[in-house]
Amino acid sequence: MININIFLKGLFSIKRLDSPAIALGASFIAIGALLKNIGFTINESIFSSFLIYALPGSLVLAESMIIGASLLNIFLAVWLVNARLYPMTVSLMPIVISKNQPRWKYYLSCHFVAVSSWLIMKSKYKEIDKKYRIDFWIGIGTATWIIAIFSTIIGYISADYLNKNMMIGLAIVNPVYFFCMM
């Protein structure tokens, strides 16, 4: 089972001032507005962020939909753009892996690999006992994933009030934040 105290510590780690939560949320507001503007329903927009949970992957999805790409092409494009997360996964696994933890936690946690959650984990993992780091990682991932989904909803709802320049500004907040943090 997941150690709830460690999970909650990961979940609430996004409240720190150096957390990427605000930048992540701003970018997904832009994604939500973009998805509405290209004709997605609110359910499709939520489902998109639920499944993709990566800003570049979401942009590739939206752009592919605009040009009328096939479902297979969209899947391959999103998969290829998200292959950039592989090096983060490789650097993360030695930090979180423990023989005392069941495999299902690692399979579940794969969905949470993103620059935002990776930055938090890399800065905080030494504070967590190694056997519980996967629980901490799942907490971080859950928190950033929830922010992405709710920000998509906010963006979808507020799309009519955002002009093109505002959407571009919101979309680049996240990459600028990551550049500064690196």
Which features would summarize this protein structure in a list?
single chain, 182 residues
Please explain how this structure is put together:
By secondary structure, the protein is an all-alpha fold. 73% of the residues lie in helices and 0% in strands. It contains 10 helices and no strands. The longest helix has 26 residues, at 133-158. The mean pLDDT is 89.
Helix content: over 70%
Task: Name the assembly state.
Answer: single chain
Q: How far is it from the N-terminal to the C-terminal residue, by CA? A: 34 Å
Ranges where pLDDT stays below 50 over 5 or more residues in a row are none
Q: Which shape, going by the Cα principal axes?
A: globular
Work out the number of β strands.
0
Radius of gyration: 17 Å
Mean pLDDT: 89
Describe the largest sheet: none
Order of helices and strands: HHHHHHHHHH
* Helix count, DSSP H or I runs of 4 or more residues: 10
Provide the structure class: mainly alpha
Percent in strands: under 5%
List the helices and strands and how they pair.
Layout: H1 4-11, H2 21-37, H3 42-52, H4 55-67, H5 71-82, H6 86-96, H7 103-109, H8 115-124, H9 133-158, H10 164-181
